[in-house]
Design brief:
By secondary structure, the protein is α+β, with helices and mostly antiparallel strands. It has a single domain, classed as outer membrane lipoprotein receptor (LolB), chain A. The protein has helices at about 5-15, 30-45, 115-120, 130-135, 220-225; strands at about 50-60, 60-75, 75-85, 90-95, 100, 110, 145-150, 155-160, 165-175, 175-185, 195, 200, 205-215. The strands form two sheets. The chain has an eleven-stranded antiparallel sheet. It has a two-stranded antiparallel ribbon with strand order 11-12. A hairpin with a 2-residue loop joins β2 and β3. The protein is globular, with a radius of gyration of 18 Å.
Length: about 220
């Protein structure tokens, strides 16, 4: 394991609010924590991928869905959103220089992060920095509460950065268990949702991600060989 990966891995468990391994109502063996440590190391090493699936965002009675294609290679992310939530087609690129969103009307929104430009261009708050860990079945580095594991040492749920994260299904991809369904919900006070007309829509926000396919290498990497 490289130095930065080790630092990120240890950071999850050494800050305040560390994980509980395991906690009721699940009854898992003491082997689950050892399996979790080994599994987490494999997941941290997965820093390049292409995933595709569906994303549904809802706040109160307002919501939308989109087909999502997320490609990552290190610090370079490219996200494509298709459908009503994406306004037809939205492309987001993020790297160490910042982030840019281009919509189907060729409007361009720039900011420091994918999260910021998605909020500017589409009006949805999605914590993409943390989500880059959560979609792999990992907590992000930082404070972590109430990590619950299953008997195979996989995350079932945890709370982090004001969000509750639940894993509804996993699938095996090249001998690695990766999430197939992830549900995240903002805790009260974490976000403030505002409509296009300025109306306050409250602080209820949830995101459901159904991952159809995983590939351990971005498609653009294959094209550039």
């Amino acid at each position: 394991m490289t130095g930065w990966r080790l630092a990120a891995f240890l950071g999850v468990f050494t800050l305040a609010g560390c994980a509980r391994l395991p906690v009721d109502p699940l009854s898992v063996s003491s082997d689950a924590s050892r399996q979790w440590l080994a599994h987490s190391e494999q997941l941290l090493a997965l820093s390049a991928w292409t995933l595709s699936g569906r994303m549904a965002v809802r706040t109160g009675e307002r919501g939308g869905t989109a087909t999502v294609l997320w490609q990552r290679m290190g610090d370079h992310h490219q996200l494509m959103l298709f459908g009503p939530f994406g306004g037809g087609r939205v492309r987001i690129v993020e790297n160490t220089a910042g982030a840019e969103l281009r919509d189907n009307k060729e409007r361009i929104f720039r900011g420091d992060t994918a999260e910021a430009v998605l909020m500017k261009g589409v009006g949805w708050h999605v914590p993409f920095r943390e989500l880059g860990f959560w979609v792999r079945g990992l907590p992000a580095p930082g404070v972590l509460d109430d990590l619950i594991l299953d008997e195979r040492g996989r995350a079932v749920r945890f709370s982090q950065s004001g969000w509750d994260v639940d894993y509804r299904a996993y699938r095996e991809v090249d001998d690695l268990m990766l999430p197939a369904k992830v549900f995240i919900a903002a805790r009260p006070g974490t976000v403030r949702v505002t409509a296009a007309d300025g109306a306050d829509l409250g602080d209820q926000l949830s995101v459901r991600i159904s991952i159809r396919t995983w590939n351990d290498e971005p498609e653009w990497a294959e094209r550039n060989r």
